[in-house]
Amino acid sequence: EIELIEHCAVAVAVREWHKHQGTKMSADADRPTTPVAQLRGHAPGPVHIVRFTPDGRYCLTGAADRTVRLWNPTRADPAYRPPDRGGASRAGTSGAFVSAQEYYGGGGAGERGDELPSALPMLSYSDGHMHPVHAVGTNPSSTVLLSATDKTLLATDMVTAQNKSKFWGHAARIEYVCSVGEEIYATASYDSTVRLWDARSRSREPLATFEEAKDAVTCVKPTRHTPQLVTSSVDGKVRTYDMRTAQVIAEDAVKPVTSFSMTTDELTIAASCLDDVIRVWECPDAYNVTGARKKVQRKLHSHHRSEKFRVECDITSDDAHCVAGSECGNVAVYDLGDGRDGDGGPGGVPQATVLRRHTGPTCSVAACPDKKRPWLVVSASYDGTAVVWASQAQYDCVR
Length: 399
Description:
Blueprint: H1 2-29, E1 34-38, E2 47-52, E3 59-63, E4 68-76, H2 100-104, E5 119-125, E6 133-138, E7 144-149, E8 152-157, E9 163-168, E10 174-179, E11 184-189, E12 194-198, E13 208-210, E14 217-222, E15 228-233, E16 237-242, E17 247-252, E18 257-262, E19 268-273, E20 277-282, E21 295-300, E22 313-315, E23 321-324, E24 331-335, E25 352-355, E26 364-367, E27 377-380, E28 386-390
Antiparallel strand pairs: 1-28, 2-3, 3-4, 4-5, 6-7, 7-8, 8-9, 10-11, 11-12, 12-13, 14-15, 15-16, 16-17, 18-19, 19-20, 20-21, 22-23, 23-24, 24-25, 26-27, 27-28
């Protein structure tokens, strides 16, 4: 009997080990590592922001040229022709369209120089943008585009590109926009406030104003499973507003917070701070537990820089990786699947893959929310470029 029990215990241990290895291999296979396309179309100047639509099929970019552009990141633009630099392309004809398969065929990307396939542009939105665009988003059904130009929020029809409504009232530039339901919009601003706007109301006064922050509010996101709003601020606090109980829980991240992202179950937060560290902690089962304390689980660092710029981070749809921009132009892909109670790497340094292509600060990153495509990421940089990244197994996703 003792031998049988020991044999069963060993079998269970082996099965769990194989299960863990299979999960790890799956996560590794979905890690974004390869540039597969570039979003071309903005005028020369910084691309400030990139976001996916809620279904993950398209992405949006906002730039200093005062336009917002809609893209299909996994479709190639058939009209794009690479500039002729005096040599023949891998496809055989100078200036001909180069697919991702041809780009990565043979000796790899190094032989192609700087040229990547160009992603398919869908629409351009410029009506009403009097200043550079620093924040974009959509409502849940992707029928309304939300864009912020300086202190003004614009709501634009995604199909006709015509403005539907305009909201103003902030005393400083809007840094983040999101939708709380189909017709309730939220804005976070340098004026230290978060405001809610009702698109159904004829009044352009805010539906609600949250003034608890002591410095610029850098990010605001609603939770999907409960009626709550989560914000981050340069004052170092991540605040959760419970709309049912009117309670506010403030967690101190110690350092100024420039961005945050939540896992799909909304129980884990990754907050990018202005000390080159992304702090990851697990939230309580219910945010509205007064006095509940979030314990920092991990600190992701050493592979990205974040000291002077507002650098974003985002968690992939399979919750396996945290993607972060960097002031040096890199994109860091940190592992979240292993060592969640520690730093997970040799000498306490977190494990990460560093993606290099941008030459200026990469301040905006977005991971595809589609659970079938956790390997897809887009980054935008002050060097004027936006790049689509995919896993090595999906290098030919742009067709």
